[in-house]
Amino acid sequence: MPLEIVTVPCLSDNYAFLAHDAASGETALVDVPEAAPVLAALEARGWSLSHILITHHHWDHIGGLDEVRAAHPARVIGAQADQGRLPSLDQAVTEGDVLTIGGEPVHVIDVSGHTVGHVAYHAPASQVVFTADSLMAMGCGRVFEGTHAQMWQSLSKLAALPAETLVCSGHEYTASNARFALTIEPDNPDLISRVADIDAARAVGQPTVPSLLSLECATNPFLRAADPGIAHNLNLSGAPAEDVFAEIRRRKDNF
Ligand code: ZN
Ligand code: FE
Questions:
Q1: Which superfamily does 4-253 belong to?
Q2: How far is the C-alpha of 225 from the C-alpha of 248, rounded, in Å?
Q3: How close is the Cα of 133 to the center of ligand 2, in Å?
Q4: CA atoms of 54 and 247, how far apart (whole Å)
Q5: What is d(CA 42, CA 113) in angstroms, rounded to the nearest whole number?
Q6: What is the structure's pLDDT at 185?
Q7: What is the pLDDT of residue 79?
Q8: pLDDT interval class at 159 (50, 70, 90)
Q9: Is the pTM higher than 0.90?
Q10: For residue 115, which ligand has an atom nearest its CA?
Q11: Which of 30, 31, 125, 137 could form a disulfide with 130 if both were Cys (CB 3.0 to 4.6 A apart)?
Q12: 142 C-alpha to ligand 2 centroid (Å)
Protein backbone atom coordinates (compact mmCIF):
# COMPACT_ATOMS: atom_id res chain seq x y z
CA MET A 1 0.00 0.00 0.00
CA PRO A 2 1.44 3.40 -0.95
CA LEU A 3 1.66 6.14 1.65
CA GLU A 4 -1.52 8.20 1.85
CA ILE A 5 -0.63 11.84 1.19
CA VAL A 6 -2.63 14.69 2.75
CA THR A 7 -1.98 18.30 1.72
CA VAL A 8 -2.37 20.74 4.62
CA PRO A 9 -2.74 24.41 3.65
CA CYS A 10 -0.98 26.68 6.17
CA LEU A 11 -0.41 30.44 6.60
CA SER A 12 -1.44 32.36 3.47
CA ASP A 13 0.16 30.22 0.76
CA ASN A 14 2.22 27.44 2.33
CA TYR A 15 1.67 23.69 2.24
CA ALA A 16 2.64 21.05 4.77
CA PHE A 17 2.11 17.35 3.97
CA LEU A 18 1.19 14.25 5.92
CA ALA A 19 2.35 10.86 4.66
CA HIS A 20 0.48 8.04 6.38
CA ASP A 21 1.10 4.30 6.30
CA ALA A 22 -2.14 2.50 7.11
CA ALA A 23 -0.52 -0.85 7.94
CA SER A 24 1.86 0.42 10.62
CA GLY A 25 -0.07 3.53 11.61
CA GLU A 26 3.09 5.63 11.16
CA THR A 27 2.59 9.19 9.93
CA ALA A 28 5.24 11.63 8.79
CA LEU A 29 4.75 15.39 8.61
CA VAL A 30 6.81 17.31 6.07
CA ASP A 31 7.46 20.88 7.23
CA VAL A 32 5.56 22.83 9.89
CA PRO A 33 4.62 26.33 8.71
CA GLU A 34 2.21 26.60 11.66
CA ALA A 35 0.75 24.20 14.20
CA ALA A 36 -3.04 24.61 14.19
CA PRO A 37 -3.93 23.29 10.69
CA VAL A 38 -1.50 20.38 11.08
CA LEU A 39 -2.91 19.39 14.48
CA ALA A 40 -6.46 19.68 13.12
CA ALA A 41 -5.66 17.49 10.10
CA LEU A 42 -4.16 14.83 12.39
CA GLU A 43 -7.07 14.94 14.80
CA ALA A 44 -9.64 14.69 12.01
CA ARG A 45 -8.06 11.39 10.92
CA GLY A 46 -7.14 10.03 14.34
CA TRP A 47 -3.47 9.95 13.37
CA SER A 48 -0.44 10.70 15.52
CA LEU A 49 2.96 11.65 14.19
CA SER A 50 5.90 9.28 14.14
CA HIS A 51 8.25 11.54 12.12
CA ILE A 52 8.64 15.24 11.33
CA LEU A 53 10.76 15.90 8.25
CA ILE A 54 12.19 19.40 7.82
CA THR A 55 13.26 20.59 4.36
CA HIS A 56 15.05 23.85 5.23
CA HIS A 57 15.45 26.49 7.90
CA HIS A 58 13.07 29.25 6.74
CA TRP A 59 10.52 30.24 9.35
CA ASP A 60 7.57 29.47 7.08
CA HIS A 61 8.65 25.79 7.13
CA ILE A 62 9.49 25.38 10.84
CA GLY A 63 7.44 28.02 12.68
CA GLY A 64 5.00 25.51 14.19
CA LEU A 65 7.52 22.82 15.04
CA ASP A 66 7.78 23.30 18.80
CA GLU A 67 3.99 23.33 19.23
CA VAL A 68 3.42 20.27 17.04
CA ARG A 69 6.26 18.42 18.73
CA ALA A 70 4.80 19.15 22.15
CA ALA A 71 1.54 17.48 21.10
CA HIS A 72 3.19 14.67 19.10
CA PRO A 73 6.55 13.48 20.41
CA ALA A 74 7.79 12.43 16.95
CA ARG A 75 11.30 11.94 15.61
CA VAL A 76 12.47 15.23 14.08
CA ILE A 77 14.70 14.90 11.03
CA GLY A 78 16.53 17.62 9.11
CA ALA A 79 19.69 18.38 7.21
CA GLN A 80 22.99 18.07 9.02
CA ALA A 81 24.10 21.24 7.21
CA ASP A 82 21.20 23.13 8.82
CA GLN A 83 21.66 21.77 12.33
CA GLY A 84 22.87 25.09 13.71
CA ARG A 85 19.78 26.97 12.55
CA LEU A 86 17.01 24.41 13.01
CA PRO A 87 15.27 23.50 16.26
CA SER A 88 17.01 20.51 17.83
CA LEU A 89 17.00 17.43 15.61
CA ASP A 90 16.70 13.78 16.60
CA GLN A 91 18.39 12.78 13.35
CA ALA A 92 20.62 14.87 11.07
CA VAL A 93 20.75 13.65 7.47
CA THR A 94 22.77 14.18 4.31
CA GLU A 95 22.29 13.21 0.68
CA GLY A 96 21.98 9.47 0.18
CA ASP A 97 20.65 8.74 3.67
CA VAL A 98 17.58 6.51 3.69
CA LEU A 99 14.84 6.86 6.29
CA THR A 100 12.06 4.34 6.81
CA ILE A 101 8.46 5.43 7.17
CA GLY A 102 5.90 2.68 7.57
CA GLY A 103 8.46 0.24 6.23
CA GLU A 104 8.97 2.29 3.09
CA PRO A 105 12.38 3.73 2.21
CA VAL A 106 12.57 7.53 1.98
CA HIS A 107 15.69 8.89 0.31
CA VAL A 108 17.31 12.20 1.23
CA ILE A 109 18.35 14.39 -1.73
CA ASP A 110 20.45 17.54 -1.29
CA VAL A 111 18.67 20.28 -3.28
CA SER A 112 20.72 23.27 -2.15
CA GLY A 113 20.29 26.58 -3.95
CA HIS A 114 17.28 28.32 -2.34
CA THR A 115 19.21 27.69 0.87
CA VAL A 116 22.40 25.73 1.40
CA GLY A 117 21.31 22.55 3.16
CA HIS A 118 17.82 22.38 1.67
CA VAL A 119 16.86 18.72 1.33
CA ALA A 120 14.08 16.88 -0.51
CA TYR A 121 12.59 13.57 0.61
CA HIS A 122 11.79 10.95 -2.04
CA ALA A 123 9.65 7.88 -1.35
CA PRO A 124 10.07 5.84 -4.55
CA ALA A 125 7.60 3.07 -3.71
CA SER A 126 4.82 5.63 -3.23
CA GLN A 127 6.12 7.73 -6.15
CA VAL A 128 6.20 10.97 -4.19
CA VAL A 129 8.87 13.60 -3.54
CA PHE A 130 8.66 16.46 -1.05
CA THR A 131 10.52 19.42 -2.55
CA ALA A 132 9.37 22.50 -0.55
CA ASP A 133 11.14 25.56 -2.01
CA SER A 134 13.43 23.79 -4.49
CA LEU A 135 11.21 22.53 -7.33
CA MET A 136 7.77 24.16 -7.17
CA ALA A 137 4.70 23.80 -9.37
CA MET A 138 5.68 25.68 -12.56
CA GLY A 139 8.54 27.33 -10.72
CA CYS A 140 11.39 27.05 -8.25
CA GLY A 141 12.50 28.86 -5.14
CA ARG A 142 14.57 32.02 -5.30
CA VAL A 143 18.30 31.40 -5.10
CA PHE A 144 19.02 33.03 -1.73
CA GLU A 145 22.08 31.20 -0.43
CA GLY A 146 23.49 28.91 -3.11
CA THR A 147 24.57 29.60 -6.67
CA HIS A 148 22.50 29.37 -9.83
CA ALA A 149 24.68 26.45 -10.98
CA GLN A 150 23.97 24.66 -7.71
CA MET A 151 20.22 25.23 -8.03
CA TRP A 152 20.29 23.95 -11.61
CA GLN A 153 22.08 20.80 -10.40
CA SER A 154 19.53 20.33 -7.65
CA LEU A 155 16.60 20.69 -10.05
CA SER A 156 18.31 18.31 -12.48
CA LYS A 157 18.43 15.63 -9.77
CA LEU A 158 14.69 16.02 -9.21
CA ALA A 159 13.96 16.03 -12.95
CA ALA A 160 15.73 12.66 -13.20
CA LEU A 161 13.25 10.95 -10.84
CA PRO A 162 10.58 8.76 -12.47
CA ALA A 163 8.15 10.83 -14.57
CA GLU A 164 5.08 9.64 -12.64
CA THR A 165 6.46 11.00 -9.33
CA LEU A 166 4.10 13.31 -7.44
CA VAL A 167 5.84 16.60 -6.57
CA CYS A 168 4.70 17.94 -3.18
CA SER A 169 6.08 21.48 -3.07
CA GLY A 170 5.84 24.16 -0.43
CA HIS A 171 3.81 27.07 -1.81
CA GLU A 172 0.75 27.98 -3.85
CA TYR A 173 2.60 30.30 -6.25
CA THR A 174 1.49 28.47 -9.37
CA ALA A 175 -0.77 31.08 -10.98
CA SER A 176 1.95 33.73 -10.93
CA ASN A 177 4.56 31.15 -11.98
CA ALA A 178 2.32 30.28 -14.93
CA ARG A 179 2.11 33.90 -16.10
CA PHE A 180 5.89 34.07 -16.01
CA ALA A 181 6.36 30.72 -17.79
CA LEU A 182 4.36 32.04 -20.74
CA THR A 183 6.89 34.87 -21.19
CA ILE A 184 9.69 32.29 -21.58
CA GLU A 185 7.93 29.79 -23.79
CA PRO A 186 4.77 31.36 -25.27
CA ASP A 187 4.36 28.68 -27.95
CA ASN A 188 4.60 25.57 -25.75
CA PRO A 189 1.19 23.84 -26.20
CA ASP A 190 1.54 21.80 -22.96
CA LEU A 191 2.24 25.02 -21.09
CA ILE A 192 -0.72 26.83 -22.63
CA SER A 193 -3.13 24.06 -21.69
CA ARG A 194 -1.69 23.77 -18.18
CA VAL A 195 -2.11 27.49 -17.58
CA ALA A 196 -5.80 27.14 -18.49
CA ASP A 197 -6.12 24.25 -16.00
CA ILE A 198 -4.40 26.28 -13.28
CA ASP A 199 -6.62 29.30 -13.84
CA ALA A 200 -9.70 27.06 -13.66
CA ALA A 201 -8.51 25.44 -10.43
CA ARG A 202 -7.64 28.73 -8.76
CA ALA A 203 -10.93 30.32 -9.84
CA VAL A 204 -12.72 27.83 -7.57
CA GLY A 205 -10.07 27.98 -4.85
CA GLN A 206 -8.56 24.55 -5.54
CA PRO A 207 -4.87 23.90 -4.81
CA THR A 208 -2.54 23.29 -7.76
CA VAL A 209 -0.05 21.42 -5.55
CA PRO A 210 0.94 18.57 -5.68
CA SER A 211 1.70 18.16 -9.37
CA LEU A 212 3.14 15.39 -11.54
CA LEU A 213 6.84 15.50 -12.40
CA SER A 214 6.08 14.64 -16.05
CA LEU A 215 3.95 17.79 -16.26
CA GLU A 216 6.68 19.86 -14.61
CA CYS A 217 9.25 18.56 -17.09
CA ALA A 218 6.93 19.52 -19.96
CA THR A 219 5.95 22.99 -18.72
CA ASN A 220 8.17 24.31 -15.90
CA PRO A 221 10.68 26.70 -17.53
CA PHE A 222 13.23 26.13 -14.74
CA LEU A 223 13.38 22.41 -15.56
CA ARG A 224 13.57 23.15 -19.27
CA ALA A 225 16.69 25.32 -19.35
CA ALA A 226 18.46 22.69 -21.48
CA ASP A 227 15.78 23.02 -24.19
CA PRO A 228 17.27 24.62 -27.33
CA GLY A 229 13.99 26.44 -28.05
CA ILE A 230 14.15 28.24 -24.71
CA ALA A 231 17.81 29.17 -25.18
CA HIS A 232 16.83 30.57 -28.58
CA ASN A 233 13.94 32.58 -27.08
CA LEU A 234 16.39 34.14 -24.60
CA ASN A 235 19.11 34.85 -27.20
CA LEU A 236 21.30 32.28 -25.47
CA SER A 237 21.56 29.63 -28.18
CA GLY A 238 24.51 27.33 -27.47
CA ALA A 239 24.95 28.55 -23.88
CA PRO A 240 25.27 25.95 -21.08
CA ALA A 241 21.95 25.00 -19.48
CA GLU A 242 23.02 26.43 -16.13
CA ASP A 243 23.52 29.84 -17.75
CA VAL A 244 20.08 29.65 -19.37
CA PHE A 245 18.67 28.64 -15.99
CA ALA A 246 20.37 31.62 -14.33
CA GLU A 247 18.86 33.99 -16.89
CA ILE A 248 15.36 32.52 -16.39
CA ARG A 249 15.75 32.84 -12.61
CA ARG A 250 16.93 36.47 -12.88
CA ARG A 251 13.99 37.34 -15.10
CA LYS A 252 11.60 35.75 -12.63
CA ASP A 253 13.17 37.69 -9.74
CA ASN A 254 12.21 40.87 -11.60
CA PHE A 255 8.85 39.69 -12.98
ZN1 ZN B 1 12.13 28.90 1.86
FE1 FE C 1 8.98 28.84 1.85
A1: Ribonuclease Z/Hydroxyacylglutathione hydrolase-like (3.60.15.10)
A2: 8
A3: 6
A4: 29
A5: 32
A6: 98
A7: 98
A8: very high
A9: yes
A10: 1
A11: 30
A12: 10
